Amino acid sequence: MSKPRLYSGMQPSADSLQIGNYIGALMQWRDLQESYEAFFSVVDLHALTQPSNPADLRAKTRRTAAQYIAAGIEPSRSTLYVQSHVRAHAELAWILSTITGFGEASRMTQFKDKSARYGADATSVGLFTYPVLMAADILLYQTDIVPVGDDQKQHVELTRDLAERFNSRYGEAFTVPMPVIQKDTARIYDLQNPAAKMSKSAESDAGVLWLLDDPAVSAKKVMRAVTDSDGTVRYDRENKPGVSNLLVIYAALTGRQMPAIEDEYAGRGYGDFKKGLADVVVEEFGPVRARALELLDDPAELDRVLAANAERADEVADATLADVYDKIGLLRRL
Ligand code: AQP
């Protein structure tokens, strides 16, 4: 029996991923690729909605792909490719945009937030149609599940609505996907500002642990993380956001239960706890970083792997697109 399909992706929006991306997405992808036929994309077309320099974007795209592989996504098992290598994404996005209501797209909270932040003149139409491109990404692969953060849930709801709308207007072309929302405890916050989620585009670097940072730098950042004056290592997200965030990172990277970690550090100060976490971080990310840098040392080989995977993605995506073109009434080219 064939495995159910899974689709997910990340934007190549920084030189390095941060550990929120690793804990919130890559670790889960790594596990899920066992039981799903998985498609993991580096969504470079999405990244174009932010201003970028062409050489930088190319470098970040390779770096993101290398980090997927270094984190354990296996390109011989999962389909790991660059979104723009598969032309069907942009083509299906156009078709889907013709069945998306303007009001419906205007209700997307991520667009509302970002456009309010940048102002109308600095907001592109691409940012507005971002969720439609995301729907195309997902629907091309007849995806059953989409692991996403809570902030993307509304976009997956839109994807479901568009799939159902197309299927009922023109005939069954798409599997209607289910979002799998990451657990609350998989959300990582900024080490210096534990009210904000850790993010690639954070304004200050001090609170972000980068996958490709020198492990000694990451260890220092852990030692300097904001805590509180209470002095007990205990999970209490509301009253002790800094310590709770460190506990979440500790538990996620070691696979240990939170109470066991609390017990281990009972009666010991934050210094000891942070030192313990710094060791865990160095141990986990040292090899990931080394593997990513090794892959980036041979860009020709990395590009070859990405091309072979894009071919695999093309096969599935082209079949869906051809069916959609047929159903919607586009004349077939002989
Ligand atoms: N802090 C986080 N904790 C847990 N999961 C996180 N993710 C991101 N930050 C955290 C998950 O990583 C994936 C990345 O998706 P993306 O690259 O499309 O962008 P994002 O979610 O907006 O992530 P960033 O790092 O904050 O990037 P920028 O700054 O470019 O917007 C998603 O699965 C997300 O849930």
What is shown here, in short?
The protein is mostly helical and 334 residues long. It is built from 13 helices and five strands.
Set down the secondary structure blueprint.
Blueprint: E1 5-10, H1 19-35, E2 37-42, H2 44-47, H3 54-70, E3 79-82, H4 88-97, H5 102-106, H6 109-118, H7 125-140, E4 145-148, H8 153-170, E5 178-181, H9 215-223, H10 241-254, H11 258-264, H12 270-296, H13 299-328
Parallel strand pairs: 1-2, 2-3, 4-5
Helix pairs in contact: 3-12, 4-7, 4-13, 7-8, 9-12, 10-12
This protein binds adenosine-5'-tetraphosphate (AQP).
Adenosine-5'-tetraphosphate binds near residues 13, 24, 188, 200 and 201.
Structural account:
This protein is mainly alpha-helical and 334 residues long. It is 55% helix and 7% strand. The chain is built from 13 helices and five strands. The strands form two sheets. It has a three-stranded parallel beta sheet with strand order 1-2-3. A two-stranded parallel sheet has the order 4-5. β1, α1 and β2 (37-42) form a beta-alpha-beta unit. α4 (88-97) crosses α7 (125-140) and α4 runs parallel beside α13. The longest helix is centred in the C-terminal third of the chain and has 30 residues, at 299-328. The protein is globular. The structure holds adenosine-5'-tetraphosphate.
